[in-house]
Amino acid sequence: MRMLRTSGAVVLAVVVLLSLFGSVLTEHRYDAQYREHANATPSHKFLLGADELGRDRFSRLVEATRVSLLFAPVTALLATMLASFIGLMAGFWGGWTDRIARGSMDLFLSLPWIFLLLTLRALLPLNTPGWKSLLITFLLLAFAGWAYGARVIRVNVAGLRDSPAIIQARACGLTDWRLMWSHILPGVRPVVAAQFWILVPVFLLTEANLGMLGLGISEPMPSLGNMLADLQNYQKIAEAPWMLAPAILLVLVVASLHFVVSGTETWE
Amino acid sequence: MILTVSGLLGAALIRFSPGYSASERQLDSRLSRSSLEALRREETLFNGTSRIYKRPVMQLVGERAATTIRSVSLGWIVAWAFAFALAALLAARRRMVALVASTLLSGALLSVPSAVLATICLLLGLPPSAAIAAVVFPRVFPYLYEQIRANVDLPHVTMARSRGLENSRIFFWHILPGAVSGILGLAAVSIPLALGASLPVEALADSPGLGQLAWRAALGRDLPVLVVVTLLLTAVTVIANLLSDIAIDRLGARAR
Q1: How far is B44 from chain A (nearest CA, A)?
Q2: Which pTM does this prediction carry?
Q3: How far apart are CA A188 and CA A237, in angstroms?
């Protein structure tokens, strides 16, 4: 099991390095079109071939990895912050705050995740520039992904609320905000960190699903999700298997994250 | 209560969405002024008309529900049967190699987006339910294994084993009753998973179910359809959780 964890860490390091320095290996920009090379097969000029618009698949993959690996953790951080805030309020104050927060959590957890995202995404304009669609997609993920983390954090905060240390700190005259920030939050930090690491692969996969359905990040900005949209023409995969490169990379990244972060303890 | 709140939110979402009743090209950032009126208007939700199909939403849903129910239930059953058999076998035998192999299998499947799983199933000529099963299995198997394994080493199970009871009898009469609450809870949780998987699977497999309907509605900003489909699936989720809670209460009490 330790070997799996180490291999996962190595794979992640290689992918991060590829996303940072991969552009050195290619002379093309991710959005440059070479119509005369449309659907080109892999060669020294196009390492992973070219798509139907003649864009270099390798440089698009490098840029897509960079976008996904940057924004999935940022979104997970946002969702975790939202979850921590709501979980802290609900767990610490209890009463009506807790009831409202729990009701919202139940509501969000009852809605089928992908359908909720689809509905929210469809509420917003679909025909938007790449960077705007990137922001919309990842903000939506953060907005819709806080509930599970908040529930876990709330339970832990409620457990800490009446501990001797907190009672003593309260007796010393600390305000609620100070208590939460300086005493409760450090106590639940491992839980918050775990929620963050759980959300990163979830958001990577969800962005991939949305992108593959044409509801994620808009062209020409590449993401691992919208690069997978090519697979909708699955009849072409047999003659152009390099189309699978984004899928393979995504699976490697997500599997590595699972193994590095949490996957192994369950089985030990 | 959740359903009522979801319904109100759904109606508000439709009415508040930028460009409601306008085409995508005419969108601007103004919000609708008559949102509260819209909540009262009966065509807002279940009696609404699809903007892209020009047909009543409930008629569309009724035509397509059977396909989704069939593929989701078949996929769910296959995933559970496979996960249950594998978890029971591994918990009883505890072979390290088998454990690592199943960890890898479930980890690998967990790392593949459901849309890609659907594509793989299409390539292999498998039905949409196979892709749904592939989505549900890795999310169910590790927890199922843990539930069963936690009960394997309990004192009364060891006692039953030492008295020479058959393995099947030990499993069904002594191990399973202890794990039944957790398993039922997991079963309820896995239903929305299967429903969620139906969306990309049906969209890519061109299967005429609710998932495909929701996908096309999202692409065409057909919000009445989207909200009704989401609400119906929420209702299924809530009912499944409710039934599971009732079953856990009944069976849990009996097991105790």
Answers
A1: 15
A2: 0.81
A3: 47
